[in-house]
């Protein structure tokens, strides 16, 4: 249900009432459509930010796992640290 004006001027004929009703329905849909589009756009933006936040939380954990697995793979038979590759050239220089 909608109102047009203060009620002091109203359509008197059936044709006038039908035209006013059609115009009211058109006006309501004209303003409701952009509001729905904006609301769904904001909801999608919030959902995208939450998804990105969750994804950013997973990156450091995945990087740490890859580093640990690589160090286990690259370790020699004596299970020495893989940093020896970087330390040995410094020891040879002295």
UniProtKB/TrEMBL annotation:
Transmembrane segments annotated in the record for this chain: 18-44
Pfam families assigned to the protein according to its UniProt record, in alphabetical order: Ion_trans_2
Record-given protein name: Potassium channel domain-containing protein
Keywords tagged on the record: Membrane, Transmembrane, Transmembrane helix
Residue span(s) of domain Potassium channel: 1-39
Annotated GO MF terms: voltage-gated potassium channel activity
Species per Swiss-Prot/TrEMBL record: Trichostrongylus colubriformis
One cellular component term from this protein's GO annotations in UniProt: voltage-gated potassium channel complex
């Amino acid at each position: 249900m909608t109102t047009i004006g203060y009620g002091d001027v109203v359509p008197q004929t059936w044709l006038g009432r039908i035209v006013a009703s059609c115009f009211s329905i058109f006006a309501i849909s004209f303003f409701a459509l952009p509001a729905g589009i904006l609301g769904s756009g904001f909801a999608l933006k919030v959902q995208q930010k939450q998804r990105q936040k969750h994804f950013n939380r997973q990156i450091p954990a995945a990087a740490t796992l890859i580093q640990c697995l690589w160090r286990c793979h690259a370790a020699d038979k004596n299970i020495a640290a893989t940093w020896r590759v970087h330390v040995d050239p410094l020891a040879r220089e002295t």
